[in-house]
């Protein structure tokens, strides 16, 4: 299979490129390196030093005996994107080339606008490129469970749901109620793809993935192959952020009451799931929604887990709840349907507690590097203010 990965320099994009290449697929990566610059913009950096893409690819060739083609290009440039797709004529295109941080989108008007322009433009460009080159190309688009919000009903794996209003029944897209400009941009992406499927019969997998955590996938066997690892208040997800706080001797900082509950998945299990979805595409012309989570926890439960694991490794750890900068329910119902991935053979390999141990052990040698970024861990981006 020939696969183009848009956003191949990212936290998920790089290990997916390694996984697919190691499995014998032809991999073409595309990235404009925006995330590297945007993380530096907020005063942070990856926990692990990242080589340039060309150095990473050379290391992958030497250490894993795989070849990855890479283009430094912006997916907002339609002509360039179309040229790459036309040149390689892939079987599938993975769309990770989006601004992926909710806090970043909430900093101010410029960051909100960038999020919408980048995310929606890149998706529309992809749609039209595929229409021109080959409408049978499978689009695998990374959505987010955050598109749904926290409804008081089960979150189904369904593009549509039947409703009745004043005695009249009809189908509507499954309801979504996002919680940041970033999450709303992803909702619009999903609806745009759903409509493109209706108009042009495109083949689409829309993955609703929960927060990903971890430092390792099977192919990351050397420091030169590490993927990025973000931990600051803008770019870091909660598990990864807590683990850095633990290593630095800082209190773990659940937002508000800590009852916010989400479905999580490890980096390794995410790679397994994404590979299965690519190697088992939907039927031609089908729009497939997949909820991609493994374990469900509240952020307070995760803090307790990190404290327990960290203390078993000799760290002194406290938990200190801080004011919640976000506009979200802090206690709520949360139940997610996950049928498609198990039907394809998905068998999670990792439990959060064991992965927390791995994360902390991987981070300890970088403690002096992390000390430089203590000031960017506590929340400063307040949803309610409209500015940082």
UniProtKB/TrEMBL annotation:
<protein>
    <submittedName>
        <fullName>UDP-sulfoquinovose synthase</fullName>
        <ecNumber>3.13.1.1</ecNumber>
    </submittedName>
</protein>
<dbReference type="InterPro" id="IPR001509">
    <property type="entry name" value="Epimerase_deHydtase"/>
</dbReference>
<keyword id="KW-0378">Hydrolase</keyword>
<comment type="similarity">
    <text>Belongs to the NAD(P)-dependent epimerase/dehydratase family.</text>
</comment>
<dbReference type="GO" id="GO:0046507">
    <property type="term" value="F:UDPsulfoquinovose synthase activity"/>
</dbReference>
<dbReference type="InterPro" id="IPR036291">
    <property type="entry name" value="NAD(P)-bd_dom_sf"/>
</dbReference>
<dbReference type="Pfam" id="PF01370">
    <property type="entry name" value="Epimerase"/>
</dbReference>
<feature type="domain" description="NAD-dependent epimerase/dehydratase">
    <location>
        <begin position="3"/>
        <end position="291"/>
    </location>
</feature>
<dbReference type="InterPro" id="IPR053578">
    <property type="entry name" value="UDP-sulfoquinovose_synthase"/>
</dbReference>
């Amino acid at each position: 299979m020939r696969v183009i990965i848009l956003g191949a320099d990212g936290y998920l994009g790089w290990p997916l490129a390694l996984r697919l290449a190691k499995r014998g697929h032809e991999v073409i990566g595309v990235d404009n390196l925006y995330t590297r610059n945007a993380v530096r913009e907020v005063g942070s950096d990856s926990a692990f030093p990242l080589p340039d893409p060309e150095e990473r690819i050379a290391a992958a060739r030497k250490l894993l005996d795989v070849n990855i083609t890479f283009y430094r290009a912006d997916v907002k440039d339609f002509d360039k994107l179309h040229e790459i797709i036309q040149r390689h004529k892939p079987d599938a295109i993975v769309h990770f080339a989006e601004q992926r941080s909710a806090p970043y989108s909430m900093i101010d008007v410029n960051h909100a606008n960038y999020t919408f322009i980048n995310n929606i433009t890149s998706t529309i460009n992809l749609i039209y490129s595929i229409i021109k080159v080959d409408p049978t190309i499978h689009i695998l688009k990374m959505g987010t469970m955050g598109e749904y919000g926290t409804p008081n009903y089960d979150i189904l794996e369904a593009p549509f749901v039947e409703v009745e209003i004043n005695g009249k029944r009809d189908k509507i897209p499954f309801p979504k109620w996002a919680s940041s400009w970033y999450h709303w941009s992803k909702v619009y992406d999903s609806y745009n793809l759903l409509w493109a499927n209706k108009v042009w019969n495109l083949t689409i997998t829309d993955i609703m993935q929960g927060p990903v955590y971890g430092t390792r996938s099977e192919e990351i066997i050397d420091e030169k192959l590490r993927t990025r690892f973000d931990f600051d208040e803008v770019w870091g997800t909660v598990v990864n952020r807590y683990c850095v706080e633990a290593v630095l001797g800082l209190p773990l900082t659940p937002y508000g009451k800590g009852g916010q509950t989400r479905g999580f998945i490890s980096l390794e299990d995410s790679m397994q799931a994404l590979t299965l979805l690519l190697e088992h595409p939907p039927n031609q012309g089908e729009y497939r929604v997949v909820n991609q989570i493994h374990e469900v926890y509240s952020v307070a439960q995760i803090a307790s887990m990190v404290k327990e694991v960290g203390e078993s490794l000799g760290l002194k750890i406290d938990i200190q709840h801080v004011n919640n900068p976000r506009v979200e329910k802090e206690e709520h119902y949360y139940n997610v349907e996950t049928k498609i991935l198990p039907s394809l053979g998905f068998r999670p390999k990792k439990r959060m507690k064991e992965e927390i141990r791995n994360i902390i052990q991987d981070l300890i040698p970088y403690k002096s590097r992390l000390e430089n970024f203590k000031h960017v861990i506590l929340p400063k981006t307040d949803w309610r203010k409209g500015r940082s």
